[in-house]
Amino acid sequence: MWSEKLPNGKIRFVERYEDPMTGKKPKVSITMDKDTASTRKLAQAVLNDKIAEKLSSISATVKKDDLRLSDLIELYRTDQKATVTKSTYQRNYFAMDALMRILGRDILLDRITAGYVREKFAAEDEKPGTTNERITRLKALMRWGYQNDYIADIRWLDKIKKFKDDEKAQKLEEKYLESDELKELLAHMKVDKWRMLTAFCALSGLRAGEAIALETSDIDFTERYIRVTKTFDPVNHVVGTPKTATSNREVYMQDELLTLCRQIKRYMDKERFCCGHRSKLFMCDVNGDYLSYYSYNKY
Prior knowledge:
- The protein is mainly α.
- Helices cover 49% and strands 11% of the residues.
């Protein structure tokens, strides 16, 4: 550190540091009223803090050898905040918290092994489905770190295999309905709005969140198409973009779907008139707000 006397009589203390990305040596400085032992000591401390702040803002690739799990997750969250939907960010935020709790937030990334990860996950004694979701989140995090040059080697990821999940296999087998099963389901649904929403999703292929987000203007009865450009996020109660870029689409209304959409419109027009609300939504609750995703899911 050196000092420079300014025209106004004050003292500027200056220190250089090396930028690890460029090799150049920029300066940081602070101005004090006078040059004494105490002000020099204070100036040095301030300059050290400034240098530390400058270095921390530089890409972590220069310190990948001692990068910790918490460091990578912080970088990952910053990237996700700008690149994914709010609901995905929130889901991954809590998933990352769980990874730090299980694996240790201070573990060095270049010391993680497949055996260590599997041992830690197994010790949680969770359902295979839960453990497999954690493995998926961990692999996504590590691959992101590798793609952005924060991690030098992720070959150990290939050694981590998902746990056998008989329960998931059973759920997948029961997830889809045959035509006669769908008709039986609809016949037993006594809530008109939930029955129409179910039939609409089945005939159109829309996800429930996409159907709930639809506005009346998205339904073109003349050209017979449904414009899908958004989805409802029940966690944050906001409308965002569809799940993937290819989810933006136009769905053609075959005769059965066209008839159903007209039925839904008549039903909603009547409800709006009776409840005295105005809503731009194709299907809404009695207050004109978005349908409750969780109530529908529970039903």
